[in-house]
Amino acid sequence: MTPPMTRLLSALRVTVLFASLLLIMPLFSHAQTAGTASGVVTNEKGEPLTDVTVKNKETGLATSTDAKGHYKLAAKTGETIVFTAVGFEAKESAFTGQASLDIQMILSFSKLEEVVVVGYGTATKKEVTSAITTLKPADFNKGNIGNPVGLLQGRVAGLNISRPAGGDVNGGFDIQLRGLTTLSGGQGPLFVIDGILGGDLNSVNVDEIESIDVLKDGSAAAIYGTRGTNGVIIITTKRGKAGQHGIEFSSYVSVQKVAKKLRNLNAEEFRGAIEQVYPGRLSEFDFKANTDWFEEITQTPIDHYYDLAMTGGTEHFNYRAAVNYRGAQGIVKDNANKRLQGKVTMTQKEFNNKLTINYNLMYAETDRDFTDQEIMQQAFRRNPTEPVYDPTNTLAGGYYRNTGPFQYYNPVAMLAEEVDHGKQKTFTGSAKLTYALIKGWNVSAFGSLIRDQFKNTKYQSRYYPIGIGNNGTAIINTGENDNKLLEISTDYRKRFGKHDIQAIAGYSYQHGENETFGATNSNYDVDLYQFNNIGAGGALPLGQALMSSYKESNTLIAFFGRVIYNLNDKYLAQVSLRHEGSSRFGANHKWGNFPAVSLGWRMSNEAFLQNVPWLSDLKLRAGFGVTGNQDIGNYRALQLLAVGGRVLYNGNWINTYPPASNPNPDLRWEKKEELNLGTDFGLFNGRVSGSIDYYIRNTKDLLWTYAVPVPPNLYNSLYTNVGTIRNSGIEVTLSATPIKTANLTWNSTFLFSRNRNKVVSFSNNDAGFKLTDLKQGYIGADVQTWTHQVLEGQPVGNFTTLIFEGIDANGFPIYTDTDKNGVINENDRQVAGNAYPKFQLSFANNIFYKKFDLSFNLRGSFGNDVLNIHRLYYENFGYLGGKNILLSALDYPGYKGKAEYSSRFIEDGSYVKLDNISIGYTTSFSEGVVKKLRVYATAQQLFTITKYKGVDPELSLAGLSPGIDAYNYYPRTRTFTLGLNVSF
């Protein structure tokens, strides 16, 4: 065959083969696209990215990348795949049937596309027109934190969180957002956990939290009506994600040390002070021992924590299950908290993905060993020369007992001879069904149940020093709280041209029911049974035992709606309304309307700012909303009767039932009207971003109890609406990335907040409700006086007391004679300080170097005053001998004054704290069982810089008498933690 013919046949063979491939290739392509699109998602360094959301833009199906960056998603040729992840620019890519669709994502400083929970829905950050702060796990405080509230301390401008119980592992948190808005109602924010209004924090494992959104202003919170006045904190927990399969294990161990304790006299100093104050009388007060009472009642607590989570699933069904155990100990012996938590969430799609069902089950069981905080006070005041034990004293059980001083008990005996235990079981279950009628229009039904059961048991033996002679006392209290919620809603979202509309409307029904039972008995033959045979006590047949039970319920019904409008990503508007009724209010005011409106203008999208290279985002916001406060307890509007004494009637003894309250059919919720003006900004492509908010909130119809005449009233007081209180302030949040290189990143956030409050009024003379002032706070024992005074036109939190000028030649205190009449009495009191800070600061930092990370948070409060109750009582020699005193009393050897409330003990409580510092190392593995490993070390409450002479200046700001350092105290602790996180 000639060479030309050979070349022709070869060309024909190639042409036929190429044509055949062209015909066959679509078949292969169709086979691929009819199955799945798959690939690997990496960052700019080529490292795999986990938890990237991969979504089919046409079908709405979604999955997420696993620990190695892999994904699989059903797709057809021509459909668009969208890749999104927090901290990265969103990316879209058309699926053309390729075998592998690999994506490299680019780091973004902008957070405008981040999802924000706005209550009954979500929006992107760029669309938000209210004051809302969103925190992700990377923003949370690190370390040994057992309560979700602890994650937020110092992380949200305007949110004040304190822990009055110090290091007590069973102590809670006081939370106040934008100041005090009530005189007698609830002061804490509403918690919404996975859509459950009023969810139980005890059931939430901090490792399972996906995000926390804080709704601060009225326009954001108004959709929650009568529970939104004090703000709303929305907690969203982690759920399974399609395409993600794995096991996660976390564990840590912590040890605590006392950060600071009150410095009283040791045995040697005590003897020296006795010789100085009472020369020649040492033998009366020296009992020859050298006892450190603080050491006798304390321990070095060790906490341990274990968490195991499993997740997996497809686009049609996915799950996440987690179980964890936390064992925590307190500084005081026998103070403990042991908690077991379990959680299962599932997402199921049916009917061609039109129906989505979300299930959520949580269970928590907590065992608590409580400690009496008076034990710490008794240890402080105890004579250090007294022994702990006296084997000859059989009446006291072999403990040393001194019956001389008033309220003076052996703290070791108090600790050893009392069992104080609590057990709590909390079940939370919810389900949400969402059906897509058409694209963008859904209908939903959501139901939940919270069942909280508790049993508290206490037994004080015959040797318990406060109750010697009772032959043992047993106490049992049990209760159950049920909270049921049903919500039906419909939501619609449509984008057409430059217009984007989101709308939601719904109905909510919530019913709560609480019941308790309690019994007390004493005088037992033996201590063997403790509280387990409470009926055996001798007080019962003598009619001296106690028994009580109670049951109550309340109902909330609401209709709500909201519309969010976005015009060309420039002009934003949100309008909402909640029409709500509460069983807690009077017949004439059970229902109320809570409207809100907010507007936004994204100026950075206007043509006149498009060419400003350093400006990446600028938005102006203005919002106004009305919220309520119905957290007042049940039946306050009704005529109630009390059980009175027994009388003889017609030869029979019968109970009497006198009035316990007056009816008030006009009782209504406290109503807060809030105006918020704010701006959000981003500079240098989002490398610097922040927000500034100014607010004015007026709370009207404040609830208080007023004296009324009898008759015509049946009872001598009436709980009713009268007053007004105003809060105003400014909040600044500034975030920046000062350094960003291939190996080093530094993220920093600075917070500033300032709040001012004023009681506008609390009297209505025309209606007969007259008050000149409110005297609040109380110092007991030998002082017995009030500490705070609330006046119209003045702020809450004023310490009103005698002004200390010095010590006279005889060693007695000199006070200012305010009215110049030569007599020092209560009329000479003046304002000596205020418990609320002038401003607060926080400075949080996260630094990443290769696989290492370092985070720390500095937090400060400035201009707040504190009443040092321990100096008031024990910085003098009045108690010396019978009790111990402060070492600082020796600095005033000539002082002869007694324990007395004055400005001498009002101290500057400003402070700066290194709240949290953590260092960690994280590495990933491309092969093997372990996918990701992280080890870390954390220190909490590392140091405090303050002039305050007491234990800790960070005190509760709740109520009308804030800023008093508790007489019975529990010291704060420094906590050091070593932890491990492993993904399989």
From TrEMBL:
Annotated Gene3D superfamilies: Carboxypeptidase-like, regulatory domain, TonB-dependent receptor, beta-barrel domain, TonB-dependent receptor, plug domain
UniProt source species: Terrimonas ginsenosidimutans
Sequence ranges assigned to domain TonB-dependent receptor plug in this UniProt record: 125-232
Name of the molecule in the record: TonB-dependent receptor
Compartments (UniProt record): Cell outer membrane
Record bears the keyword Transmembrane: yes
Residue ranges annotated for the TonB-dependent receptor-like beta-barrel domain, each copy included: 381-938
Transport is among the record's keywords: yes
Membrane association type: Multi-pass membrane protein
Signal peptide segment: 1-31
NCBIfam families in the record: OMP_RagA_SusC, SusC_RagA_signa
Family according to the record: Belongs to the TonB-dependent receptor family.
UniProt keyword annotations, A-Z: Cell outer membrane, Membrane, Receptor, Signal, TonB box, Transmembrane, Transmembrane beta strand, Transport
